[in-house]
């Protein structure tokens, strides 16, 4: 029903406006008695064979929602009824910020892709914390970044603030230094500043009674030399793992009208390059750390290929927008079909 009826209607309108409309509609519908049970009956697939234990956490299934969809932790309970095994909120920053000027999201229908240049628009970490205090039983990741006005030399302070604020309310952390939509942010992926940032967070983490897994989200546009640096940094800092990958600045092979818009590209054009980054990290590190695979998962086969390349878990964003919630169940079913009882 989503692809045949809802999507053609929704795709007639501005992507960001549709996003807010869909949030409000799901919030309203969730208040109707029995609605959450209907969602779960149609979309949730539960099976012990889908369970995964990764970086010390037990996931109901390996299919999660990537950061950027529920930036402010507004809808994680409702979204969990669609069958996700975990949900990543954010990217959140210490202070609220409006992000880049609108219009800042573009559908590339011919390419099954999206370009966005939101720029970490969010209500600030304290607003997210207020909502996360009502957490359900879904595993939550906290994706943290720096405010646009914060210079890179002071970035550690921003990450530190969000880390401390979220610590009691999320199950794992993601350090986002790979968005192309905050000026100079990707420079923090360079070896020296990245090592310094991760070492700082791990030192604070190690002083907690129960440390939380910290992951690093990287860009798909890194060279092999840079990826080798990432491997060295992840191992030496002893963080829990990597999320591969964020959106790309590449525009290779696009045919849609909005192909030259500035921002990060997600969706089908990212499928292959993201999978290759996963395979490179897994192979060159000899599987030294877990990887969450994200980028261009539009079909169950795309997810299986990322798992085969070395990912322990996968996340959806653009595939969820284009294919609807049935994609979550279809991926989990494909995983089960590989391992019949």
TrEMBL record:
Residues 50-336 form the Dihydroorotate dehydrogenase catalytic domain. GO terms for molecular function: dihydroorotate dehydrogenase (quinone) activity. It catalyses: (S)-dihydroorotate + a quinone = orotate + a quinol. Pathway: Pyrimidine metabolism; UMP biosynthesis via de novo pathway; orotate from (S)-dihydroorotate (quinone route): step 1/1. It comes from Psychroflexus torquis (strain ATCC 700755 / CIP 106069 / ACAM 623). The gene is pyrD. This is Dihydroorotate dehydrogenase (quinone). It is a peripheral membrane protein. Pfam families: DHO_dh (PF01180). Binds 1 FMN per subunit. Catalyzes the conversion of dihydroorotate to orotate with quinone as electron acceptor. The keyword S-adenosyl-L-methionine does not apply. Its cofactor is FMN. The active site is at residue 179. InterPro entries: Aldolase_TIM (IPR013785), DHO_dehydrogenase (IPR050074), Dihydroorotate_DH_1_2 (IPR012135), Dihydroorotate_DH_2 (IPR005719), Dihydroorotate_DH_cat (IPR005720), Dihydroorotate_DH_CS (IPR001295). Gene3D superfamilies: Aldolase class I. Its EC number is 1.3.5.2. GO terms for cellular component: cytoplasm; plasma membrane. NCBIfam families: PRK05286.1-2 (NF003645), PRK05286.2-5 (NF003652), pyrD_sub2 (TIGR01036). Its main location: membrane. Substrate binds at residues 71, 116-120, 176, 181, 246-247. Monomer. FMN binds at residues 67-71, 91, 143, 176, 217, 245, 267, 296, 317-318. Belongs to the dihydroorotate dehydrogenase family. Type 2 subfamily. It is an enzyme of class 1 (oxidoreductase). Keywords: Cell membrane, Flavoprotein, FMN, Membrane, Oxidoreductase, Pyrimidine biosynthesis. GO terms for biological process: 'de novo' pyrimidine nucleobase biosynthetic process; 'de novo' UMP biosynthetic process.
